[in-house]
Amino acid sequence: MPPDTIPTYYGQPAVKSSYYGWKVALYTILGGIAGAAQAIVSMAQLLRPHRARALRSDGRVLSLAGTAAGAALLVADLHTPQRWYHMLRIFRPTSAMSLGTYILSGFGLATLSGLWLDHSRLRRDGVAGRLLSMPGVLGGAGMGSYTAAVLAATSTPLWAAAPHELGAEFAAGAMADGAACLSALALRRGDYRSARGLDAVACVSLAAELAASRAAARARRRQGVDGPLRRGPWAAVHAAGTAAGVALPIVCYGLNALRGYSPRRSALAAAGIVGGSLLKRWSLFEAGNQSARQPDEYFRMTGGRPWRP
Amino acid sequence: MKVHPRTLEYPELHGLIPNESELTCGTVVQPGRSYGFFTDTTLCIGCKACEVACKEWNALPAERGGLTGMSYDNTVALSATTWRHVAFVERLGDRPTTLPSYQSHWLMMSDVCKHCANAPCLEACPTGALFRTEFDTVVVQQDICNGCGYCVPACPFGVVDLNELDGKAHKCTLCYDRLKGGLEPACAKACPTDSIQFGEIADLHDRAARRVAALHEQGRPDAYLYGTPGAPGATGGLGDLRAFFLLTERPEVYNLPQAPSRSARRLRPALRTGVTVFGALLLAAAALLQTWRD
To answer: In terms of residue numbers, what domain contains B289?
Structure first.
């Protein structure tokens, strides 16, 4: 056998693949939308409370719906769902899952208390009202980022090979998704001015996501663990996600900038961003599971140097 | 045959012998000390007594019938219901004209949970179901586990797994219940060649080092330890493996990674970069949203 060929044990997997599929993948998108929408709106609230009123209710809808649906998906994904509250027994800082439990819980509480504040007598454009937006910003940052840490802190080659890049990709993706959803809701209200601003945010975030995604791909290729995202069915789904979620919206935004603003193109871009994100995330999950079942991928990641006893 | 002198105190068996492990393996099990397995693959004859003893003691069901064609390995892998697995590696085609002093070119290894010093499954568990026992081993508490499955991809050795029937994670407990009762773990007790040795970690490390030296002297320079401090397997912040191995081929041959790492060490990089990028984009958003001015 050539010295650079790493042997395997009858091609049997060396690590177990996760049980996470579309439910958790969908949660990471919904959680990201909820977090980013809330963070953007809270930021607007901090800076310009008098202009942010309508936007604030959009953000509230997205973060409430995303948190509720996301938590339901996570509980449904447990194999003993009636014990979901065991997640709250302890706090384990080495577990991204435990960290995420408290980020999600804290974010949910912040969103609910924000809802209560909106209907209270407190003037949201006063100093106190502005400061009360801070938890939304912090919780949103956590929601948009921690799911990348959940994947990175595993032994699954495709997820573990590029932790920094994965964190950047998820965070930028969440911002793009959140801005796109807020833009679509603003369009429904006929608030084109807000929609145009949010489109710009989505466009910048998409550029950052694309850069992070390319950097992640390079890091994986360097370690020889990018197989399932380069070949096979999940590579095709991922490519379709990139076409719908990056190429299409950038064309739409480009045309909007060059030929004048069209709400229809803006809505198409928003749909493309969210749809593309779903495809990209789903294929990342499934390709990751596939990479865990390929011992050569894992052995390359875990220092499969030519062996000297 | 050497018999422990205490054995003579029990001509007849009327019940549990106190500290029985002292009679069967010369080790008294006491809380607060570290215990583990030293699996010497050069002594393994592939009888699978360990697999059977494990299944019997832990009341684990059989998985499936059928032949895999992978030498004599029809167990295939560790799983939620298989906590010892004997790997069979037949080196056909490179049989030398003179046979080595043992095992011909047929490698066998009884694989098991490594009970890592810094166990990634335990570090990943969000419910506290996975815990470190008073014997310094790692065990899943079945009444706590909610089947989130995060320990499964966290393990760098592919050991712990979910059972879809009961919805909980399962793996080797290093016979936690037997240790509490002063008994040697079932697999080690059943092993007829002492390929699996149970004992206190420091003691096992000494024994293993002596065995490697002896093998080197017998003309087997390829013998080495996997999972002892500083050796392959005990890498990437995992600390030493409480179940460690003596191997004669590179680790991948036995389906073991050369330099595995602690999964949790990737948490902070991902989170830190994620939050930084999120914050930067949020500031960009704030700047962009300033432009919608009246």
So the answer is: 268-294
| CATH number of the domain where residue B30 is located | 3.30.70.20
- Nearest CB among A83, A84, A155 relative to B263 is that of A155
List strands edge to edge, sheet with B224-226.
B196-200, B35-40, B243-247, B224-226
Shortest CA gap B64–chain A (Å)? 17
What does the pLDDT look like over B153-178, one tens digit per residue? 999 999 999 999 999 999 999 999 99
Same domain, B239 and B205: yes
A167·B261 Cβ contact <8 A: no
CA distance, residue B33 to nearest chain A CA (Å): 24
Q: Specify whether B101 is located in the same domain as B234.
A: yes
Total domains in chain B come to: 2
Distance CA A152, CA B274 (A): 12
Q: Are B73 and B192 found together in one domain?
A: yes
Check whether residue B200 and residue B294 sit in a common domain. Answer: no
Reported as a single tens digit per residue, the pLDDT across B82-92 is 999 999 998 76
What predicted TM-score, i.e. pTM, was given to this entire model? 0.94
B10 plus B54 within the same structural domain:
yes
Distance from CA of B255 to the nearest CA of A (A): 5
ipTM of the complex model: 0.96
Q: Are residues B39 and B110 in the same domain?
A: yes
Contact with chain A for residue B155, Cβ under 8 A: yes
**Which positions in chain B touch A298 (Cβ < 8 Å)?**
257
> Do B114 and B53 fall into the same domain?
yes
The pLDDT, as a whole number, for residue B162 is 98
Q: CB–CB of A155/A199 below 8 Å?
A: no
Residues of A in contact with B238 (CB under 8 A): none
Q: What are phi and psi of B239, to 5 degrees?
A: 75, -170
Mutation for B interface: A74, A77, A80, A147, most B CBs within 10 A: A80
Q: Chain B contact for A187, CB < 8 A?
A: no
Q: For chain B, say whether A218 makes contact (Cβ under 8 Å).
A: no
3-state secondary structure of B171: coil
A160 three-state secondary structure: helix
Tokens of A67: 């948190």
Alpha-helical (H) ranges within chain A are 22-47, 53-77, 96-118, 127-131, 134-152, 157-160, 163-188, 192-223, 227-230, 233-242, 248-259, 263-292, 295-301
Residues of A in contact with B156 (CB under 8 A): 15, 155, 302
Residue B125 near chain A (CB below 8 Å)? yes
For residues B173 and B279, state if they share a domain. Answer: no
* Residues pairing with B162 in the sheet: B169
- Please list every residue in chain A whose beta carbon sits closer than 8 Å to the beta carbon of residue B265: 153
Please give the mean pLDDT across all residues of chain A.
92
Residue A201 token pair:
């945010």
Question: Which amino acid appears at position B23 of this protein?
Answer: L
In angstroms, the separation between the Cα of residue B18 and the nearest Cα of chain A is 36
φ, ψ at B131 (rounded to 5°):
-140, 165
